[in-house]
Prior knowledge:
Layout: H1 3-39, H2 42-76, E1 85-89, E2 92-95, H3 108-118, H4 128-145, H5 148-164, H6 169-186, H7 191-200, H8 214-220, H9 227-244, H10 249-256, E3 273-276, E4 286-293, E5 296-302, H11 304-317, E6 326-328, E7 335-337, E8 344-346, H12 350-424, H13 433-460, E9 468-471, H14 472-486, E10 491-497, E11 502-505, H15 507-523, E12 530-538, E13 543-549, H16 580-590, E14 594-601, E15 604-611
Parallel strand pairs: 10-12
Antiparallel strand pairs: 1-2, 1-5, 3-4, 3-7, 4-5, 6-8, 9-11, 12-13, 13-15, 14-15
Helix pairs in contact: 1-12, 2-11, 3-6, 4-5, 4-6, 6-9, 7-9, 9-10, 12-13, 13-16, 14-15, 15-16
Amino acid sequence: MPRRSLAALATSAAGLLALAWVLWGLHSVFVREREAALLAASERRLALEAYAGQSLRERLAAQLREAQPRIDAASGDPLLYANDLYLARGEGQLLPRGVAPTSSDATPARELYAALRGGKTHIQDDSPWSERIELLARLRAALGRNDLRGIERWVRETLRHRASYRIPATQDIPHTLALLDLLRERTRLDSTLLERILRSGFGAPDDVDAVPGVQRSLLRSLGRFTRADVEFLGERIASLSEWGGVRHDDFQERLRERDGEYVLTDPSARDPYVVNAGSTNEMAITWYIEPESLQRASGVRVKLPDLVATIDAEMRERGLLTERYELILPAHPGMTPLAKLSPRVESPAWPEAIESARSLYTLKSGLMLVCGVLAFGSVALGWLAYQRRLRLISLRSEFVAAVSHELRTPLASIRLQAETLARRLGNNAEARDYPQRIVRDIDGLSFLVENILSFNRLERGGWVPRLAPVSLRELVASLREELASHAARKLEIELTGDVDLMLNADEDLIRLLLGNLLRNAAQYCTREPACVTLAAERTDGGARIHVQDNGAGIARELWERVFEDFYRADTTGQRGSGLGLAIARRVMRAHGGEIRIVASSPEGTRIELSFPRGSSREDIT
């Protein structure tokens, strides 16, 4: 049996074995499906519940990821809303903010503000607070004289002092508000400076030496003031912000908000969990907490019923739940680890699933059997068709070999007689070129026969390259001499570039390849003389040869087709076998290389031969 048939038979047998293995595996799957459905219809319910639980956990984690930028921002900015965010460091809760003013009716901050406005505060010591009061007094004096330079100087000195010394907020905020109110009565501050004093502050937000704006300063120190003082100071800050065109809507919202709730959490927890802070039946208010380390935990307030409703709708849209299925979230009072938080699927249709599984098993087994029979039958028919094709190929190859062999003998005899006749008619001018024409035609026909035989051997894989050092210079010189003696027209061949290039290749195959390219260049050229330039170069361990002719060119859409078997572009009306470039491609592939057309125009065609690594002289030992 031919080697190709053995390979095809082995491939078919392997395919049949794989198919049988797959069918047996499918049958095993069908059996397991039936047994699973018969033993426990709750398997589907468990899968649905697992899907719903995983989806719930993913949505909770996604909500926290979406809220994380808000958590990070709100932890450093009291102007941001944070009653739905949770952040704890160590055992202290930072968000929601739980700091609230004291319930006393006293108004020490308001009284201090009034004293500072009226200039009735006098402290004789070297403390920063005394210096701050002195600066305010000097500013008041400059305002009384309408001394613009003095006003500017003492405002800057006050701001510089505020940045250099930390004074308690209970003194700093009334002092700053008194200063701004004095300025509002007599002059007008730069809007940018006013915005920084009231809101944005001085310095980067994450800088420990930054001076916060008055709005943020009051929100951060609410616990140091009474409610009455907070209301008074908030009104003054809002009034000054309105006067200076500074944003203060979020500041007023933070003052009006109820205190954030304290979330009862587990500092020792290492895995995500939920805390039910509302009704234990409805779980309307729930916190999702994710411990990030021993010192930090973050979370977000969620509505579990809404999330479960969303998951229910999604599963129904995907066909996982029907009208007879219901997704329910059991009550989980207190703290519940996220791994134990899973919705439950209730349905009266579980017994129906058993009968459905039995029916499906019968149907699938029948279809599997039919598919197996069809598959085996298809393989058998394919094998018969393949054998018939191999027989046809073998007959064609035998026919080509026989015809070519039969042509060789008479061609050799005719050529010998034509050469003899040429010698005898050497002095007859009229008949002298007849034998030469006969010889050229016989050489062309012999080259065609050699091409057919070579193509047949290459197609059958019967020509294995025998690699040896091949001198490109000597090979081109030999082909130049051969074509000069037997070609129908003159062909000028020039070798440029690395003319001493040595190829590690099969000399007969390379001669056949270059011979076809050179004969094509001579045959399909309409200019006189026909010219071919071979440019050789070494690449990374390999070689590259560009063959440039001055022929009529090949259309761009035919660059690949001309390498097909028996295809002729027929650009000049010349006849040919259509095997030259097909043989060239087979020769290059036998050497592990590639041939392609890189450029073509009415001025000529350029073909590139790329030999792989190991083909240049450096790699030949």
